[in-house]
Write a structure and sequence with these properties.
The complex is a heterodimer of chains A (114) and B (114).
Chain A: E1 3-5, E2 10-14, E3 19-21, E4 24-26, E5 33-38, E6 44-50, E7 56-58, E8 64-68, E9 73-78, E10 87-95, E11 101-104, E12 108-113
Parallel strand pairs in A: 2-12
Antiparallel strand pairs in A: 1-4, 3-9, 5-6, 5-10, 7-8, 8-9, 10-11, 10-12
Chain B: E1 5-7, E2 10-13, E3 19-24, E4 31-37, E5 44-50, E6 53-57, E7 64-68, E8 74-78, E9 87-94, E10 104-105, E11 109-113
Parallel strand pairs in B: 2-11
Antiparallel strand pairs in B: 1-3, 3-8, 4-5, 4-9, 5-6, 7-8, 9-10, 9-11
The chains are: A mainly beta (114), B mainly beta (114).
């Protein structure tokens, strides 16, 4: 079965500092991994994805993620956090064997303080 | 280019009632998936529609049913509402069951069951 885990319910970081939001995955076969962001009372917005290729994936709003096969991780990163980055972040894996069903993590709340 | 649209945005029902939620996929997309997001949790897959048929179903009871129309729009129906059905219901669209790209989400329908 496919799954992702987000070990931190909340991450606090000061504005201007680098941020990391962690995600580990468990899949059979090649992983198709995604990050989404959710602002209060809104839907999910796509940030970036890893399908194949370079382990460092660049996405929207200056975010990037590093795919690490040996550690089965796909951590979301940003070199310099903004207060406006404060939101709920979800890691997800796509199950290609089940008509593209997505499995989401439980989410990590990012708080960026001025 | 219109994205995924959902209606209604908010609704309040009482236990035992029935509800219908609606979704129009992003232009060019033919596959619609529904997710339930309870408060403080990640989205959980309900089911997916492609070519007007339910292709995959998550771990949800038969009270949850759906439909897809020839124009690819979709409905989610929930019968005999329970308090635990209170959640944000998210519709997501994609381009075909072989698509490896991201899901595009609507803003969601917030259902409150009293």
């Amino acid at each position: 079965a496919q799954s992702v885990a987000q070990p931190e319910d909340q991450v606090n970081v000061a504005e201007g500092n680098p941020l990391t939001v962690k995600c580990t995955y468990s899949v059979s076969g090649n992983p198709y991994l995604f990050w989404y962001v959710q602002y209060p009372n809104r839907g999910l917005q796509f940030l970036l994805k890893y399908i194949t290729g370079d382990n460092l994936v660049k996405g929207s709003y200056g975010f990037e993620a590093e795919f690490n096969k040996s550690q089965t991780s796909f951590h979301l990163k940003k070199p310099s956090a903004l207060v406006s980055d404060s939101a709920l972040y979800f890691c997800a894996v796509r199950d290609l064997g089940n008509f593209n069903k997505f499995y989401f993590g439980s989410g990590t709340k990012l708080n960026v303080k001025p | 280019d219109a994205g995924v649209t959902q209606s209604p945005t908010h609704l309040i029902k009482t236990r035992g009632q029935q509800v219908t939620l609606r979704c129009s996929p992003k232009s060019g997309h033919d596959t619609v998936s529904w997710y339930q997001q309870a408060l403080g949790q990640g989205p959980q897959f309900i089911f997916q529609y492609y070519e007007e048929e339910e292709r995959q179903r998550g771990n949800f009871p038969d009270r949850f049913s759906g439909h897809q129309f020839p124009n690819y729009s979709s409905e989610l129906n929930v019968n005999a509402l329970l308090l635990g059905d209170s959640a944000l219901y998210l519709c997501a669209s994609s381009r075909g069951r072989l698509d490896t790209g991201e899901l595009f989400f609507g803003e969601g329908s917030r259902l409150t069951v009293l």
